[in-house]
Write a structure and sequence with these properties.
Strand order of the largest sheet: 1-2-3-4
Protein name: DUF397 domain-containing protein
Order of helices and strands: EEEEH
Number of domains: 1
Number of helices: 1
InterPro entries: DUF397 (IPR007278)
Strand content: 15-25%
Pfam families: DUF397
Largest sheet: 4 strands, antiparallel
Shape: globular
Radius of gyration: 13 Å
Length: about 70
């Protein structure tokens, strides 16, 4: 894994995440070489998923397109 993702300060949570969910939010970091990492802020092991930019863009497109909506 990219050492850039070892610093907690590189991870940001969505502004849509209410303060009361501070410990239960998805956080995302984008490295200088455009790798994207995602993790759960409440995971003490800091399990991190890392995507290249094309994978991340496809995921975002799917989210915006409703591919992951609960039906």
């Amino acid at each position: 894994m990219n050492s850039y993702f070892e610093k907690d300060s590189h991870f940001k949570k969505s502004l849509a995440c209410p303060p009361c969910f501070n410990v239960r939010c998805v956080t995302v970091a984008i490295s200088p070489n455009q790798e994207v990492a995602m993790r759960n802020s409440s995971d003490p092991q800091k399990t991190t998923l890392v995507f290249n930019r094309d994978e991340w863009d496809a995921f975002i497109k799917g989210v915006k397109g409703g591919d992951f909506d609960i039906r």
